[in-house]
Amino acid sequence: MLLKQYERELDKVLARAEGSGADMPAWVKDLKAKGLRTHREHGVPTPKVEDWKYTPLRDFSERDWKVAEPGPAVFKAELPRYDAGSVRIVLVNGRYDRNLSETAPGVTTVSLRDAMVSHGALIEARLAQAGPDTTKTVDREIRPDVFTFGELNTASFEDGLFLMVEPGVEVAPLLEVVHVLCAEDGEPTIAFPRILVIVEDGARIRFTETYVTDGCNDSACVPVTEVFVGGGADVEHVRVQDQCACSTHIGLWQTRQQAESSYRSYNVCFGSKLGRLDQGIWIGGEQTVTRLDGVVCANGEQHLDNHTRLDHAVPNGNSFEIYKQVIDDSATVVFNGKIFVHQDAQKTDAKQTNQALLLSPNATIDSKPQLEIFADDVKCTHGATVGQLEDLPLFYMRQRGVPRDAAEAVLVYAFAAEVLELISIEPVRRALEKRLYSKLGIDLT
């Protein structure tokens, strides 16, 4: 239910959203109205809701949020870039910035608002349609949970990015999508970025999606990313959340995957005071390969929460999920991974692993791997482990003259490397390795 104070603030946010959407097509207005009704019905989840019992939202619900205005042309900090030869696309406070964005041959990258005109029928068929197929989830009690903040984004987004790769096109350069949050006058601001990615049949693309704040500001980001992977397509998608330590990030990332395609997704979380990401992949075609991996590094008083959902809806699908968490100081990390193997999904091969490394006696991990199988000819495994750095490897490295910080860095990286080394984009992999060391306060120079 809606908290009274949150309801008052929500009225202001949505009044702004209704005015900004006045010139949008009628079907968009209907979609936004539906999102508003759903969010009002479900409101801010409380600890009584099972999927949110470890995510503290009281501070978020009690803030006097103001919708972020279009950002400045000049930023306090330099925008991140992993590869000098990449194509960078920039969204500022949820809005596509033409002046800061570049283009690549074979790829359509335009404002989502403009795409509603230029690609109206395609956008209408795909926007807010990447989640689980409710018409087919008839296997006993398999039902998708309502993500109320995704509905809030649908009700409130003013613009975003539409990215489409034509059939059979191989995009050579790396595409880097950068989300920048800018707060004004120190006021708590909230932004609703929206990305719609369509990779047509037989196409190939590698892209990153990075969330940062311009300086340290009291901001909230409530993004939604939807990815459609066509038949035989090959997609590598790296998502990096590196907002400042006083911000909030509550995101939804949904993918629909067709037959004979490969979708490799990597979720890397470093930033925000409170971070929550719900990721879901619907496998709707046979002979697919799916990766759903993550690296989370939390310290200080951070609270980082990741919920994943993987639906094997058809036979002959292969999925692999590895989540690694490095937790220091008094930080808390939450992992909830769900794999559903539907009745028709025979010959499924699904593996899920969650491992946490606690670097402090005050660090906390709440892990809940879930595997629900409604087919009888499958190979499925899942498991979770929690541990600390072992004294013996540290002792041997110290005995050989390796400084303690460097020795710990090697062991921490060896732990996280199982995921980071799966990223095929070398500049991205190196940058994330460096950021991991920086996050842990380790200087290897």
Average pLDDT confidence is 88
Query: Termini, distance in Å?
Result: 52 Å
> Main β-sheet: number of strands, strand sense, barrel status?
12 strands, mixed
Radius of gyration: 21 Å
Give the strand content.
Answer: 35-45%
Domain unit count: 1
How many distinct beta strands?
A: 22
Structural class: alpha/beta
Ranges where pLDDT stays below 50 over 5 or more residues in a row are none
Tally of alpha and pi helices: 9
Classify the helix fraction into a percent range.
10-25%
Bulk shape: globular
Can you give a write-up of this model?
- With 445 residues, the chain is α/β, with parallel strands linked by helices.
- It has one domain.
- The strands form two sheets. Strands 1, 4, 5, 7, 8, 10, 11, 13, 15, 17, 19 and 21 form a twelve-stranded mixed sheet that branches.
- A hairpin with a 2-residue loop joins β2 and β3.
- α2 packs antiparallel against α6, α7 packs across α8 and α8 packs across α9.
- The radius of gyration is 21 Å and the shape is globular.
Please specify the SSE layout and strand pairing.
Layout: H1 4-20, H2 26-42, H3 58-61, E1 66-67, E2 87-92, E3 95-96, E4 107-111, H4 112-118, H5 120-126, H6 148-156, E5 161-165, E6 175-181, E7 189-191, E8 194-199, E9 204-213, E10 219-221, E11 224-229, E12 234-241, E13 248-257, E14 262-269, E15 274-283, E16 288-298, E17 303-312, E18 317-327, E19 332-341, E20 349-358, E21 364-373, E22 379-387, H7 391-399, H8 404-420, H9 426-439
Parallel strand pairs: 1-7, 2-6, 5-8, 6-9, 7-10, 8-11, 9-12, 10-13, 11-13, 12-14, 13-15, 14-16, 15-17, 16-18, 17-19, 18-20, 19-21, 20-22
Antiparallel strand pairs: 2-3, 4-5
Helix pairs in contact: 2-6, 4-5, 7-8, 8-9
